[in-house]
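Bug #2210: token dump truncated for ABC transporter substrate-binding protein?
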Amino acid sequence: MNRQSRGARGAILLSALLLGILLLGGCLRSGGKATEDRPADGEPKPIWDFKYDPPITITTAIVDENRPNAFKPGESLTDNVHTRWMEENLGIVTKFDWIVSKFEDADTKIRLALAVNGKLPDTFSADGVILKDLLKADKLLPLDEAIEKFAHPKLKEALGKYAYTLTEVTKDGRIYGLPQLNAGDEGTVMWIRKDWLGKLSLAPPTTIGELEDVLKAFSEQDPNGNGEDDEVGLAVPLKEGPWSWMGETDAIAGAYSKQMLSTYDIKLFWNEDGNGSLVYGAVHPDAKKYLETMASWMAKGYIDRDAGMQDASQAAELAAQGRAGVMFGPFWMGAWPLGDAAKADPGAEWQAYPLPAGPDGRRGKAQKPLYGIYTVFGKDFENIEAWFAYYNKLLAKNFGPDDPYFDPRFAQGYHEGYDYVIEDGKVVTVNFEAEGVPKNRWPLEDGSSMDMRWMLYPLTGGAPALPYMNSDAIEKLLAHSDAEVKTPIEQGIKALNSTQLEAAGLAISERGLEIPNRYHGPLTDGMEKHGAYLEKLATESYLSIIYGEKPLSYFDEFVAQFYKNGGDAITKEVNEWYKENKP
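Reproduced locally. Full output below:
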């Protein structure tokens, strides 16, 4: 995030503070009123301190998947410590219009509401075809005025800097949704078993050629020392193609080309060709170089033969079991899953290394998308200011007491006995038994930590975050590990183990290698009609080449099939959008 001058930032925060006091002190359209009590000295209440009286209700909907460790016995999604806290302290009641177990069921509920002109929840998440249909049906609340009046200054700053995140929810010049922003600091690093490098007298690889030598040694020289031929060099999930949330091979593609690859999502990755037009990276001729390398490694036994059936978590099991020595992925992998390797081998030591260069010295990786799904609001929602008041409180939790929206009641955590326990004056959030917390005061009977996400974020669709908001804290604590921790972000970074922190610093240092997706428009008509087939075609074609079932020359036949079966239409639509929205 760009740093503003101290004076400009102060002016923005002061303006937001004064505006918020006026807004929260006035009558709401619902008939509720934010309390107007003033301290004895007559000063206005701080912006974080509000309560709607009488209480207001905000309706939402949620996909309630498997959520272990989310609630204590007797509590539920609809009645828990946080829902009660919100009503008692904020005057906000959360009501669920529906709770379903599958995303498809949520889509069905929305489609049914659209078909019968039924009422939608006040706020819910949407993307893809559903989002497109909602916009077409004019069922969403425009947000331009609300963003200007009520949004946290840091959120407004991010939406201005990353304005492309709004294009999919912009219609006729108006904004109809908020992107659920990601921190975006999970760019790929190369993880390698450092102890295996030492055992086999290998230097850390700096090029693709050197990486292949390491993969060969790890696959053939029994680095785990069990006397069995059960190792592979690279742990990688190929079930979902080159791009995933963990175990991705974007760095292999980036060593050969500026074209980034995804076969599992028709909206990722669209890159510029030599003429300034966008092309789907998976059909660009440069993808052959990636496929040639991956096919060679598969044929030589450097990749597990089951990789084509494995997702990211399954691939990670090879690394955790001491059966693979290289895996690409985010900085946090240094704790889980790679940290689990010490269970099988106490001497296991994973370390992050710089990405390898290709034959021409090129290095590259994918920019993790900074947004995905959107938070939208029903057209008849009358309490948008209350939603922002709650969202701002959660966002400010990241930035600590200096943020005017920071609620000091959350200074230690959200709820004592849930996400933290105070023992002998110390805040304990994990390892309760080791920290001497009596068993009857553990958040959960088995001593594990509670997953508070389900309590805290039903109205916001997830934990509020801003792009690259962790970077300053990572750099600060890398430079001075004993530096004073002043914000919850810094507390979170401080909690990383040394392996993770070093990897996070490496990821930041290589941010300039990131290749972004250039298409940020809506799901086009062609994508809606042909996307699922083309994704399947691309993923299966890549697998057939990597497994050697088809020769590398089959790539050209795949590309022809791609364009013949809807790829031409989609490429035309994407480039028509790009002409109007090119930065």
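Output looks complete on our side. The domain at 6-184+371-415 is CATH 3.40.190.10 (D-Maltodextrin-Binding Protein; domain 2). Marking as cannot-reproduce; reopen if the truncation happens again.
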